[in-house]
Write a structure and sequence with these properties.
It is built from 5 helices and no strands. The protein is mainly alpha-helical and 174 residues long. The chain has one domain.
Length: 174
């Protein structure tokens, strides 16, 4: 059952990573379109800044869990230097459990915003009048994925499995 959860978490992490990549490319295309529009058409695109900010928030939140899985988050390892291998393992487990609690608080906060926007039909107060549930849904998905990845990390540490999935050689060389 635990291995099934780990496989599920890895799959959803890959999906979140893929969606974050698509949003990043979309963000870049919107900014290039804005530069082109301002430079050659002497006008600004009404949607570029708003949708780009939504996309960038989605990239950060959807990428947080996969980054954890890849070992890309910044860490302070000073305390680990004073501990043996078993102490390091338990410190990692404790830190990851604290991370789960904090990520759950973030998830609850984003869910509350999303549910409020859904119930009230809230929209962005701008030219586009975008329903806020769409960018907030990205935040909820990203926070949920971070919780999943933190839980999977805890299980891997508990079972003494590798907690991070290093980049494949061909990805690292690119």
């Amino acid at each position: 059952m635990l291995h099934g959860f780990l496989k599920f978490s890895d799959t959803t992490s890959w999906l979140a990573e893929t969606l974050a990549s698509i949003l990043l490319y979309g963000f870049c295309l919107l900014m290039l379109a804005e530069v082109f529009s301002r430079g050659f058409l002497a006008t600004s695109l009404a949607v570029s800044w708003e949708f780009s900010s939504f996309a960038m928030a989605g990239v950060f939140l959807l990428g947080a869990g996969p980054a954890l899985r890849r070992g890309s988050h910044v860490r302070v390892t000073l305390a680990q230097g004073f501990l043996g291998p078993q102490g390091q393992r338990w410190l990692n487990i404790a830190a990851t459990v604290v991370g789960i609690v904090l990520a759950l608080l973030v998830l609850i906060s984003f869910w509350s915003l999303f549910a409020n926007s859904w119930a009230r039909g809230l929209r962005q107060s701008s030219y586009t009048n975008t329903p806020l549930i769409y960018p907030q849904a990205l935040a909820v998905l990203g926070a949920a994925q971070l919780v999943l990845d933190l839980c999977a990390r805890t299980i891997r540490l508990w079972l003494d499995l590798p907690a991070e999935q290093p980049l494949a050689k061909e990805e690292a060389d690119a």
